[in-house]
Design goal:
- The protein is built from four helices and no strands.
- The radius of gyration is 13 Å and the shape is globular.
- It has one domain.
- It is an all-alpha fold.
- The mean pLDDT is about 90.
- It starts with a helix and ends in a 17-residue tail after the last helix.
- About 60% of the residues lie in helices and about 0% in strands.
- The longest helix is centred in the N-terminal third of the chain and has 20 residues.
């Protein structure tokens, strides 16, 4: 991921909306996730990134927080925007496959 995209990816975490108690936990998972994205070589962008997104979603599912509508919509928006940065098309709704009951 290019440095400008890295800066943008980190700023996206500030765009999350919802209850701060919930967001603290989610941001922790997303910081690790963004680090994983940054470490992936550009040649791996596209569908090869799907396992990272799956792992991130499964970690979020394991959190002991109540993810309400505001957090859900904000979180999915940020994750799809990160997907855009690494060459994934949001039109296939890939995150919905792994989203828990939130």
């Amino acid at each position: 991921m290019a440095q400008s995209n890295l800066d943008n990816a980190c700023r996206l975490l500030d765009d999350l909306k919802g209850g701060e108690e919930c967001l603290v936990e989610i941001r922790g998972v997303l910081r690790c996730f963004v680090t994983d994205l940054i470490c992936m070589p550009r040649s791996q962008h596209g569908k090869a990134m799907l396992p990272l997104f799956k792992s991130c979603m499964l970690r979020i599912n394991e959190l002991d927080v109540d993810i309400e509508t505001v957090e859900r919509e904000s979180l999915l928006d940020v994750l799809y925007r990160l997907g855009d940065m690494v060459g994934l098309s949001r039109t296939c709704l890939y995150l919905e496959r792994w989203r828990g009951d939130w």
